[in-house]
Amino acid sequence: xxxxxxxxxxxxxxxxxxxxxxxxxxxxxxxxxxxxxxxxxxxxxxxxxxxxxxxxxxxxxxxxxxxxxxxxxxxxxxxxxxxxxxxxxxxxxxxxxxxxxxxxxxxxxxxxxxxxxxxxxxxxxxxxxxxxxxxxxxxxxxxxxxxxxxxxxxxxxxxxxxxxxxxxxxxxxxxxxxxxxxxxxxxxxxxxxxxxxxxxxxxxxxxxxxxxxxxxxxxxxxxxxxxxxxxxxxxxxxxxxxxxxxxxxxxxxxxxxxxxxxxxxxxxxxxxxxxxxxxxxxxxxxxxxxxxxxxxxxxxxxxxxxxxxxxxxxxxxxxxxxxxxxxxxxxxxxxxxxxxxxxxxxxxxxxxxxxxxxxxxxxxxxxxxxxxxxxxxxxxxxxxxxxxxxxxxxxxxxxxxxxxxxxxxxxxxxxxxxxxxxxxxxxxxxxxxxxxxxxxxxxxxxxxxxxxxxxxxxxxxxxxxxxxxxxxxxxxxxxxxxxxxxxxxxxxxxxxxxxxxxxxxxxxxxxxxxxxxxxx
Length: 520
Fold this sequence. Notes:
By secondary structure, this protein is α/β, with parallel strands linked by helices. It has 8 helices and 32 strands.
């Protein structure tokens, strides 16, 4: 019976919206007072009927999360009171220029929110875009839009959120950034496009900017001083071709929560002021650059830090015992607190959910082998750890007995070091394969090597120890501390879930957003 009701409801919706010959709303007297229409995340299919233009009082339209195809009917441009339009997550195949031209007939003054995420939109953004003076939210991510960002976009004086990630936009940022009047913009998300050239040095009037995401482009040059004039909480420049040392002006980002500069060509030492000045950091990723020297001990002062990724650099030295100060990685209470704070950044109407596990990654280049010393026993205090990989280093000594606290491990590897002694028994370690321990001088049932009374391998087992350690270049140190409830494995690319209710005016809360790719 429930199945029949579900079928009937969706069949009825199809007739109401998508088959003009039976369009009940075709008579204006029926629904001319309807101001909100939402069929979001159903199983609607087919094309949207032109008759939807008869809903003359409509100010909120949400058909997101269906299987709609074809083009947006031109009659939507006749809805002069339309404030919010969301057709995201469908299969609409149309030039974005046609949609903007249609909406410009009657919606230039009314439209406040336009979202068409994950469709098949193509062509270029046109100068019509700059005519929507009250537009506050524009999200066209995950389409096939190409060409440069039009200069007219800078005329959108009410715009707070501009997101065009995962398209094919190209050209330079200079004209758009340096000739813009969007002082109210708080979110600029242009990741995974084809932008090129240097990041311009004219961010002086972008004082409201809180999220800047330019990852996965072809940008080059250095980080310039004017970028420090923004009130950034997230800066993501991952996977570009930027270089130079980190400028001291980054110290001014006192509210910064998320900093990802990975997969570039930055060099020099990791600045100590990151730990001294950026006290709110929860995510710090400098992976795959040319940073050298030791990890500054000031990093351990970042008590909110849940993701630290310094992998694939030229960093040397021992694993610091001050890691015990990274309390957000070690205690369940801290992790829960920071996760729920990270769940949303509400901008009057917009929330970002960020799935995040606390983690530490110190993976080195394959032609270097730098980390030495004992395995710090304080790692055993990270009681929610799900993955620990210390393989391919020059670590020595034994496996700390405090590892008995690590009850949630689902991955463990200390192979190809110089570790000695007995593998701790009666712990989670007993569930792992021999390959997790090979290339050392360990003993115990897991490596089929009996231990002497002093806890070392017998002569017979020593002679059988593999010499495979010499075949391995590089070092690998990776710790991933996951949220046990609700999060499993390694952090996936961050995703965004939009919840738009423009008229509610909720206060902006602390947020975390963007993408992080942890490679184990």
